[in-house]
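Field reference: sequence -> structure
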Amino acid sequence: MSGPARSVAATRVAVRRCLSQLQVGPQECVLAAVSGGADSLALAAALAFEAPRAGLSAGAVLVDHGLQTESAQVAEHAADTCRSLRLEPVVVVSATLADEGSGGPEARARQGRYEAIEAVAERTGAVAVLLGHTRDDQAEQVLLGLARGSGARSLAGIPPARGLLRRPFLDLPRQVTESACAEQGLRPWQDPHNSDRRYARVRARAALELLEADLGPGIGAALARSASLLRDDADALDDLAAAAADQLGPGPWPVTELAELAPAVRRRVWRLLARAAGSPIADVSAEHVEALEGLLVRWRGQGGVALPGGRVGVRVHASGGATVRIDSPAR
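Structure field:
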């Protein structure tokens, strides 16, 4: 008897490996986050096949943002597909964009989607939620980070695991999920946003295609591999920064102690100190960090550094020596 098609087998192996890493008891529930596209349908099918063999139950969560006129029908069609795969529970939930301060429309939709997914996971008692991001998504993320001049953490791309979220397909190219759907008779939805060049990710996808054509195949895989390597570096630097921030304690912080830190560590420390002072860390940009660096290494008597959350970083000179602190403007 012949086995499954190669693409189907690849998706199942990826999910099997992911499930084997979960430290959970028998019959615990794992959800697939399903949009109706090829990546998430291939994920749902692989989870439906592998979860019972791992002694787990499997369900699906579908988030409808209501951003397109047919979004409710798309969600219900994808839900029906999940039910035909014998996933249970299958939960369709509505979600709104996150607050205006959370970035552009893509970022706000993503944040709102994750909040909705995590709420469903809590309600259903799910121990993990699998997401269908592929190697192509990873490469696009790295390319966007390069275009923005981001640091190692951003260039480390999409993490394979964070909290309840798991991404088993990050080593698989998108063509594998598309083939897996075709082999299993699954009919993915073609999201029109995926061809709308108003979105940065769509433009990054087109740029990758041009790079592949001009420089040869393998660019996407190389970018994804770079992300994996940079993630290890970023994790190590984050650990050093957390230890340094703990040692510094609450401000004000002596300039001499800050200057002893390696720049790569200190830039991360600034973000942690800003968060501890009340700035939302997601809103502390590279520009904010460089301005704080200026209080230390490019000091020319400049004024305070305005930070998110109404905080201000200032350098103060007193008889005991120069210090930096982050506080509210009213202080």
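Note: The first helix runs from residue 6 to 20.
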